[in-house]
Amino acid sequence: MLAQKILRALDSDNASKSLSELSETDNQSSLGRWIPFVVLHALGASVFCFSVTSDVVTLAIALYWVRMFAITAFFHRYFAHRSFKTSRILQFVFAFIGTASCQRGPLWWASHHRHHHKFSDKKEDIHSPVESGFVWSHIGWITSEKNIPTDYERIKDFTAYPELVWLNRFDWVPIVVLSLVCYAIGGFKYVAWLFLSTVILFHCTCLINSLAHLSGTRRYETDDSSRNNFVLALITMGEGWHNNHHKNPGSVNQGQKFWEIDLTYMILKVMSWCGLVWDLRVVR
User: Fold this and answer.
1) Is residue 33 classed exposed, middle or buried when 0-12, 13-18 and 19+ CB atoms within 10 A define those classes?
2) Domain coverage including residue 79
3) What pTM does this model have?
4) Residue 13 belongs to some domain of the structure
5) What pLDDT, on the 0 to 100 scale, is given for residue 32?
6) 55, 58, 179, 255: most buried, per Cβ within 10 A?
């Protein structure tokens, strides 16, 4: 298949060693892998070189919520859990937007998340705060050479799409495109606020891996330490209902009670009325 040829040709991350071939000793921070995060935070901090105006604040907020939705609805609930269906075009559009969040590609993201659910808070879990502590579960695991390759065997249902394989390999393209658009509109000031929004988005997403397994309430006695956290649900469009999610990972709705605000599900519901998504798997 064309997609498989592209995968073999482009996947340089897997060229020398796969996840299964990497030993436990590789599960440690690599200094070189910290460089992108330092650069990302430095770019975000560059907002202090410019004045604060309503347009840049609006830009940062808008980019935060749009990309957060791409992560929560598509990277997580669609690519990782197949909790609804959509068209090939919309699948790629939101994969592109989500990749502009600097959280790597959709196939990498989803394959690692599937691994997390299989081994949640066990020794094999690559970002468990119970096993490895808060800092490692929040950001440290991403700097380990062991976690850099994409386990394509775990995400075979989407490797049939060559455009997704390409995007997963060249995951730097969306943020470069978005940066150029922001620069064309408002210069370096807009680019700086883009990256501040990206930094905030990154850490809020990572809090689900870390804090949502340490702080909150437990409705269900699952085999992990997942918790429901109202504050996290607000800033991540519903992902904070994490204990609900670990009980029913295939459900498109993570908020199960009327007061459990789940903006991602609400938007997906409206999109389903428009025929943009369908076959939503709902659990009450």
Assistant:
1) middle
2) 2-7+30-278
3) 0.90
4) no
5) 87
6) 255
